[in-house]
Design goal:
Layout lengths: L2 H20 L3 E3 L4 E4 L12 E4 L1 E7 L4 E12 L6 H18 L3 H6 L7 E11 L40 E4 L1 H19 L9 E3 L20 H4 L3 E6 L2 E5 L3 E6 L2 E6 L6 H13 L9 E5 L8 H15 L4 H8 L2 E4 L9 H7 L1
Parallel strand pairs: 5-6, 6-7, 12-13, 13-14
Antiparallel strand pairs: 1-4, 2-3, 4-5, 8-9, 9-12, 10-11
Length: 351
């Protein structure tokens, strides 16, 4: 592997570790290791081993168990994100986690929590040139040939050898950029004194009818389901600064940020958010809530859509002026969608 190719491969590793650290995931064991295949008669491995780029884990607050992500880190240029590449990666991951659960070598290497853990696969697809601007899942679709255009074979999920009960999560380029945009926004808010510096924040998980939250709220991670879902909530403490003359000055009161990963094309998107906040009992009094939308294709008329959603929500529920004031107190803002790029040469100099 050439120096530049090696540095390109490092990009996904660097991005993933920086992202998930803030979301309170941890890396366990060593990176870039192979472990023996225990099902050679079933798995089509070339070297009788399975690759493992990195293993992340967190303690799921609803499942009350550790979730381990046997992760395949991919760093692709735009033209390399193809159905063939994705099919090969998913087959490899499915076979890897099939072996991992029963592999003493894997379990010892990655501090497997016996009796209270689950192993999943994660395909992390980073677009290092920043030029991949289509829907990632288009590469899964089969396109029939025509007289004018060659056909394209997609990815048949049914043919991926994933065992019953096993899961593979795909963190694709747009989700990666969405998460990077959140971190960029948090850092900007903290710099402006609108978010606490340090770790005075937590990912908000309400008790559900069938699932209760386990663990200290201040230590809970952001689960893969929340990070790849339409929105999730961060609860934060006071933001403040110190001056020698005045001492501690509070610059922003405790509150909540709702990050929304949508285009904002119809009222129902925001009505869903209002319903969610109401169900979580966060609209019982004038709240300090900010709804911050992050998407590469935000509707140009989004503020009008948002205001119309307020009117519809208030009217449909027959709310009085006090309830209206609570909804209208929510601060709605757009966030820049960032697509950071790394230079392979620059990474080489850093190393």
């Amino acid at each position: 592997m050439s120096g530049e190719t090696s540095n390109i491969a490092l990009m996904a590793e660097k991005i993933s570790s920086e992202l998930f650290k803030w979301f309170r995931w941890e890396i366990v064991g060593t990176t870039n290791q192979n472990y023996p295949c225990h099902k050679n008669n079933i798995h089509q491995t070339k070297s009788d081993t399975h690759p493992c780029d990195v293993v992340f884990r967190y303690h799921d607050p609803y499942l009350n168990q550790y979730v381990y992500f046997n992760t395949d880190l991919k760093s692709y240029a735009k033209g390399s994100i193809t159905s063939t590449a994705m099919r090969s990666a998913l087959i490899s991951l499915a076979e890897s986690i099939d072996c991992a659960e029963g592999s003493p070598e894997w379990q010892e290497a990655y501090q497997y929590a016996y009796g209270s853990a689950e192993v999943r696969g994660m395909l992390f697809v980073y677009n290092h040139d920043g030029d991949f601007d289509q829907n990632f899942y288009d590469v899964f679709n089969t396109v029939p040939a025509t007289d004018l255009k060659k056909g394209k074979r997609g990815v048949d999920i049914d043919n991926i050898p994933l065992m019953r009960g096993h899961k593979i999560h795909i963190v694709e380029p747009r989700i990666i950029n969405y998460l990077q945009s959140i971190l960029s926004d948090i850092h900007k808010l903290a710099y402006d004194g609108c978010f606490p510096v340090g770790d005075d924040y937590q990912f908000y998980y309400p008790d559900l009818l069938l699932h209760k939250v386990n663990g200290s709220p201040s230590k809970l991670p952001a689960t893969i389901e929340s990070l790849t879902g339409p929105c999730f909530i961060i609860k934060h403490g006071q933001a403040f600064r110190y001056t020698e003359a005045e001492g501690k000055i509070v610059t922003f009161e405790p509150g909540y940020i709702v990050y929304y990963n949508g285009e904002g094309r119809i009222e129902l998107e925001f009505i869903y958010i209002f319903d969610m906040l109401s169900k979580f009992q966060l609209l019982n009094e004038i709240p300090n809530i900010r709804v911050r939308i992050i998407h590469p294709n935000i509707n140009h008329d989004i503020r009008a859509i948002y205001k119309k959603a307020i009117e519809t929500y208030v009217m449909d529920w027959g709310f009085d002026e006090y309830k209206r004031s609570i909804i209208e107190a929510i601060v709605f803002e757009q966030v820049d969608f960032v697509k950071p790029k790394f230079s392979a040469v620059d990474l080489g100099w850093r190393d």
